[in-house]
Amino acid sequence: MPISRTARSWLAWLVVVATVLALAPDPARAQVSSQVTSQVSSTARTDSRIGPTDCRLLGRVYVGGQGCSRDRCVPGARIAKAARGAELCALRGQGDHAFGAPVDYRLCAQLHRRWVAQVNWCAANPDRGRAVITHAPQCTGTASTYVTHSDRAGAYDECRSPGDVRRLREQARQRGTTLEREARETSAVICSTRPGHRFTDGRCERGHDPADTPGGVLLVGDSIAWRGQDELGTRWPDAHLDGIPSRRLDDLRPRLDAFEADHGAPDGLVVELGTNAARGFRASDLRAVLDTLPARTPVMLVLPYRADPHRPAEIQPASTRTARWMRRLATDRPATCVADWRGVVAARPGVLVDGVHPTSSAETFWAEWIVRSWRSCGRDVRAGGRRS
Fold first, then answer.
1. Residue 261, pLDDT above cutoff 80
2. Strand partners, 30
3. Run of H or E including 115
4. Over the chain, what is the mean pLDDT?
5. Rounded to 5 degrees, what are φ and ψ at 128?
6. How many CB atoms lie within 10 A of CB 144?
7. pLDDT tens by residue, 119-140
8. Using alpha carbons only, what angle is made at residue 57 by residues 53 and 59, rounded to the nearest 5 degrees?
9. Mean local confidence (pLDDT), 45-64
10. Which of 70, 104, 250, 358 could form a disulfide with 278 if both were Cys (CB 3.0 to 4.6 A apart)?
11. Which of the following CATH numbers is that of domain 211-382: 3.40.50.300, 1.10.10.60, 3.40.50.620, 3.40.50.1110?
C-alpha cells in the first residue's frame, strides 16, 4: 500500500529528530571524539601551525589549506630531520647544514635571525656557498644582510645591517682580510659564544677571565631540553640552557669543561641526558664527571624515558639502565636529587608525541615541571636530604 504524502513527511521529520538526538553532545562521545582528533593531528602529514613563510624557511612544501608538509621538501632538498614536531629539510651536498640550526632562541634573536618557534629552529642559510645574502628572509628588522660563517659556537651566522656591511667591507679592504672575517671578529654576540675570549675595543680577543661572568645553574640536555628551551628560558631566565638534539651522556664532561672555561664551576647542575644511548658509557663514568664538581654543588638528574613509538609500553632498556644509575648516584652523592620524568610520563598518557619528546603543547608543562623539580631539589638539599 503506497505511503501517503503526510506519512512520508512525518517519517522524514522523525529521521531528522533521530539524527539530531544522535548528534547531541555526550560526554563520553565527546571524549572519544577529542581523542580521535588528537590522534589525527599527531599523525597528520602537514603541520597547520606553520604558515607559508616559515614553511619555506624550513625548506618544506606548503600545502594550501592544510599547512606545512612534514615529509616533502622544496626542489633540490631532502629531509634532514624527521623527528615529529621538528621536521627540517636541507639542500643536497651541504653536509650537516640545513635550513635551520639548533641555536638557543635568545641567541637566535641576538643574531637578528628568525626563530621558528613551532619547531624550535633558528632560520639558517641552506646554501653554504653563498657567503653574503642581501635582503635575506632569515633575517629580522633592519639587519637584513645574512653573513655566513660556520654556524657553530664562536662563529655563528649573523645578520647585519646594510650600513654595517658597507663599513665592514671597507675595513676588510684596509686590513687585507675578508668581509666575513671582519664581521666575525667585530661581533660582540659571536664573541660571547667563543670559549676563552672577550670583546675588547671593538674586537674579539683571547683572554677571558671566568671571574668576569661567574657561576649560575647549568642545564645540559638533549633534544628534549632543546625543544623546551624557549618555554624554560622564560620561566628560568637566569639558567644557562645547553640543549642540543642527539646529545648523549658522554657529552656531559665536554659541556661542563666549556662552561667552566667561561664561568668557572656552576652553582648547580641539571643533567637531562640518557635518552640517547652512549655506547661504552658506564655508571662509573657518570660518577666520575660529577666528582669533578665540589661536593656541595646541587645536582639534579632527570630520569630518562625512551619507548618504542610503535609500542609505547615497551621502554627501551638503555634508558631504564641509566635511570637506575641516577637513582643510585642520588643516594650516594651529597646535594643530589632525581627528577622522575619516567613517573610523569607514566601518569600522563599522551604527553609524548613519539615515545621520547613532549608534544608541542606539553613543552610548557615540561618546562614548568623542570623548574618545580629544581626548587623541590633545592629544598631537599638545604634540609640535608636526597630525593630518590
1. yes
2. none
3. strand 115-116
4. 88
5. -70, -10
6. 19
7. 999 999 999 999 999 999 999 9
8. 115
9. 97
10. 250
11. 3.40.50.1110
Write out the three cell numbers for 347: 601518569
Residue with cell 656591511: 165
Average pLDDT over residues 74-101: 97
Give residue 331's identity as a one-letter amino acid code. T
Q: Where are the domains of the chain?
A: 98-208, 211-382
Q: Are 230 and 120 in contact (CB under 8 A)?
A: yes
Measured distance CA(218)–CA(83) in Å, rounded: 26
C-alpha distance from residue 328 to each of 272, 369, 381 (Å): 16, 22, 16
Given CA atoms 43, 223, 277, 366 in this order, what sign does their dihedral have?
negative
Q: How far is CA 176 from the centre of its chain?
A: 40
Residue 250 confidence (pLDDT) above 60: yes
Residue 213: its pLDDT value, please? 79
DSSP state of 198: E
The model's pTM = 0.83
Rounded to an integer, the average pLDDT of 309-338 is 89
Question: Do 255 and 290 touch, CB atoms closer than 8 A?
Answer: no
